[in-house]
Specification:
The chain is α/β, with parallel strands linked by helices and 448 residues long. The chain has 16 helices and 20 strands. Helix 8 packs across helix 9 and helix 13 packs across helix 15. The longest helix is centred in the C-terminal third of the chain and has 19 residues.
């Protein structure tokens, strides 16, 4: 009798999204020791592998988990508050909100963020940083998600209250302490990077030292870049250079830098990004009112691009919504003027949302595609539904028709976090109840 290879979990008889962003039917996936051990025809898997735990994949498509390359876990309690508001929401709403968050608020918001991401298919995320980030770390570890977290680092700026600033020494200490406490925790799922909130809110000395500390620890740095016109004006007035030109003059740029937003780029800045291997995260829905990024040009130059939600305050945490919006924006702004309907094909969009996000997190060798040897970070999508099937092209359908609520299952690091829409690692009812109470008390306290 043939000896079968033992495994931890087998997903049986499913369709898969391949590493080439194509569809294969009648496949099975074998998972062992947090890793994808085999992907093959379902019959071949039955003949060669065994497992005490199985998952029925009939009527489902399994694909790499989505990656939110730029988000704010602390903004869950701002949902529905900033839409249709006049400009300068930062000073009128965001600052009062963030400066009044308590540690309990952050814990509740982080728990809700993780729950939201699990239910919408996001297996990994980059948090742009806030206060009480140890609570975000603990929530991410509990949830089972893969994450990169940072501190919100600011030491200057006229529009920022003193309570949100720190001295240079304090800011660096916070980053180092968070790194030492949580980098590599959660069985390696959680990484800690160093952070700058923005060039406007950090002095040149702090900017330089943040990059130096990160390089000493071989970790990444992220910040908000080229998002607003006043940011460009500030750099031109104070440094006689645009934001990326200024960072290049400090000699801090390298391939471990993640530039969030990156909308208002000059051609020279695009070249700087390319030359230094900088990673970019676009947030289509949040950024739509500020400008359209030069994504086709960035991709043509080989720049790595991921997608982000910018947090629930702007649009929720659904990367599927971001994909749909981004396709329309790219087609309308870049495609229509030159009559190029394929300016951003479905396969490219899916790559941005998966492998592009893994590159943004500096971990493309570990996850981002469904293939043997990579971490088992997968989502299952219920495709046997009238708004999805039948279809001439399921890759197109993933972009055009699939919604976050169609995500039925989630596996991260080989562990099942959600099965048939039931979250197994978090108490959904408790989190929802506590979130409602937290939003009410926080809104009164912040006066928003």
């Amino acid at each position: 009798m043939k000896q079968l290879i033992e495994s931890d979990l087998i997903i049986k008889d499913c369709s898969i999204l391949t590493a080439d962003f194509d569809i294969k039917d009648n496949q099975s996936i074998v998972i062992k020791n947090q890793t994808i051990l085999a992907v093959d025809d379902a019959a071949a898997i039955r003949e060669n592998y065994s497992s005490l735990s199985t998952m029925d994949g009939k009527g489902k498509l399994f694909m790499p988990g989505l990656v939110d390359s730029h988000m704010h876990t602390c903004q869950q309690l701002l949902k529905g508050r900033i839409a249709d508001e006049y400009p300068m929401i930062w000073t009128r709403i965001m600052v009062p909100f963030e400066s009044n968050l308590t540690e309990q608020d952050v814990q509740t918001s982080a728990q809700l963020s993780c729950l939201d991401m699990i239910k919408s298919g996001t297996t990994a995320f980059v948090d742009a940083g806030g206060t009480y980030m140890h609570q975000v770390a603990e929530s991410a570890i509990q949830s089972g998600l893969r994450g990169t977290i940072t501190c919100s680092t600011m030491n200057t700026g006229n529009q920022i209250p003193e309570s949100m600033k720190a001295t240079e020494e304090e800011a660096l200490k916070r980053n180092v302490e968070l790194f030492d406490a949580y980098h590599g925790s959660g069985e390696g799922r959680l990484n800690v990077w160093f952070s700058l909130r923005s060039i406007i809110s950090c002095t040149p000395s702090l900017i330089t030292k943040v990059f130096e500390k990160a390089k000493e620890r071989n970790t990444g740095v992220q910040t908000h870049m080229n998002e607003y016109p006043n940011e460009i004006s500030f750099c031109l007035e104070n440094y006689q250079k645009r934001p990326f030109e200024f960072l290049e003059s400090l000699q801090v740029l390298d391939s471990n830098f993640l530039s969030a937003h990156s909308i208002l780029l000059s051609e020279n800045e695009v070249d700087i990004i390319q030359n230094h291997g900088v990673k970019v995260a676009h947030c289509p829905i949040s950024n739509a009112g500020k400008g359209i990024p030069k994504t086709p040009s960035l991709l043509q130059k080989g720049v790595s691009v991921g997608l982000g939600t910018d947090g629930a305050a702007h649009s929720g945490l659904s990367i599927f919504d971001e994909i749909k919006t981004f396709k329309s924006l790219m087609r309308a702004y870049w495609g229509t003027p030159i009559f190029d309907p394929k300016v951003m094909p479905a396969g490219n969009l899916l790559e941005l949302a998966t492998l592009g996000g893994a590159r943004a997190m500096l971990q493309e060798d570990r996850f981002g595609t469904l293939e043997v040897g990579k971490k088992a970070d997968l989502i299952g999508i219920d495709i046997d539904q009238p708004h999805i099937q039948p279809t001439h092209n399921l890759v197109n359908g993933l972009v055009e028709s699939v919604n976050s609520t169609d995500v039925s299952d989630m596996i991260v690091n080989g562990e099942v976090l959600m099965k048939d829409r039931e979250v197994l690692t978090m108490d959904e009812e408790k989190i929802m109840y506590e979130s409602k109470l937290a939003m009410e008390s926080m809104s009164k306290r912040a006066g928003i």
